[in-house]
Amino acid sequence: MQRRSVIAGLGSVLAPALWLPSLARADTPLAADPFGLGVASGRPTATSVVLWTRLLADDPTVPLGAPVAVDWTIAEDERMQKPVRSGRATAEAAWAHSVHVDVEGLRPNRFYWYRFTVAGKQSPVARTRTAPDVAERVKALSFSFASCQQYEQGYYAAQRHMAAEELNAVLFLGDYIYDISWGREHVRHHGTGRPTSLREFRDRYALYKSDRDLQAAHAAHPWIVTWDDHEVANDYADDISPTDADPEQFLKIRAGAYQAFWEHMPLPNAMRPAGAGMRLYDRYRFGDLAELFVIDDRQYRSHNACHAEQIRNRMLTDCAERLDPARTMLGAPQEAWLASGFKQASARWNLLAQQTLMAEVDRGKDGTHTYWADGWDGYPMARQRLLETVAASPVRDTLVLGGDVHSFWAADLPRAFGRAEAPLVATEFVGGSITAQGPSAQAVKDRLARNPHLRYGKTGANGYGVVALTPTAATVSFRVLASVKEQDSGIDTAVRFTVAAGRPGVQRA
Ligand code: FE
Ligand code: CA
Questions:
Q1: What's the predicted TM-score (pTM) here?
Q2: Which residues have C-beta under 5 Å from ligand 1, the single-atom ion?
Q3: Do residues 446 and 402 both lie within one domain?
Q4: How far is the CA of 90 from the centre of ligand 1 (A)?
Q5: Which residue range forms the structural domain that includes residue 399?
Q6: What's the mean pLDDT when you consider all of the chain?
Q7: Which of 68, 183, 373, 382 has the fewest CB atoms lying closer than 10 Å?
Q8: In this predicted model, what pLDDT tens digit does every residue of 177-188 receive, in sequence order?
Q9: What integer pLDDT is reported at residue 27 of this predicted model?
């Protein structure tokens, strides 16, 4: 009976010969709204974007079985009356009935609109945008950068506001989901424990992606994504997780987590994970104005120095191993890829999109120096090599954009920390968190007082950053919600900074 009703539903739009054989294995019907997790686009180039959706089953506890044919169309107009490309994708159980379409042959620097159709049901129409051609002289670009959307600690009002921004793309820099429940004053609940299987990670993404404000941000802009730790397990490093004693067991958890990440992100088919690994780092070009490097600082990093995974909050004082030059944050291949990319860079600005605050933060008191092992401070020599890479680029202006620390920061990045005479090689901005709770106001005050290259810090607020580029300057706005606990919260610009081309360093606008 179930099979018949699916056939009746699909028959109205699809040619039966193409899908009937596979449908014989169907065991559960599609949901009344198969697009209940929304649609998304990502990885924009001058001629291509990736379109994404995932089909939902009628009963969320029974995954879809058979492959399902999904039609897609991309058009030059919102009413979908000028279609430019269309096709059919197959959603398979092995990939959670997610759909990733690599659309090619588009024109540079254009808005496009797209829609999926399955079983006679249409998804909402969503917007995307290609990048300007490499040769185009671009007068202005704009990107938001955001991270850390713990579902329980607040609503995604920031995502709704991000949908309304004028952007070339959203940069989402990690902690898209949270593995764990934590924090105060929850407004809603995961309802399940920490995911460790592929199935449980899929369910966690489905929960997060059921949020309409998050769907709105995806439907308004192409997203460029990387991950941090909470997509897998808190503070993990390569194959070591503080919560999972056995690395072999943890790699199985990680494989499921990486696969679920790919399944739920607008990432190309070429990035589909194999085994426990997934290459995520990538490079983008936006005309003559910006080159964007997106890196992965989790998958290949050295284990914590001085066994910090066994130390509460991973704080290190007097740990010589921290300074070992053999320690890596990116792994040798990614480090070499980044160095060669920076060497060949030729746009006006370099953007480095990464997970966490890069600037050194000494959290000690008086003569004691204390560093957080999970951030770049756990890998100071790797950071030093990265700063040399930035300094060696023919492009003089690099902005480092980050997340992870649940607070807003602006920092000068000198060629060597702790040396007043060291020239600045880049300027850094960390765009707060969408919902996740940050450190205390006193902690931020102490860090600012002790680390003079930290030029601005703000905690107790949620939102995101927007960076607007022109050939002569970058302007960074920190957008802050009135209240993360209210779904319809307003948003405001808390502070604005400029970086003049050719003169790295934070200036208040
Ligand atoms: Fe986070
Ligand atoms: Ca994190």
A1: 0.94
A2: 148, 175, 436
A3: yes
A4: 34
A5: 135-508
A6: 94
A7: 183
A8: 999 999 999 999
A9: 67
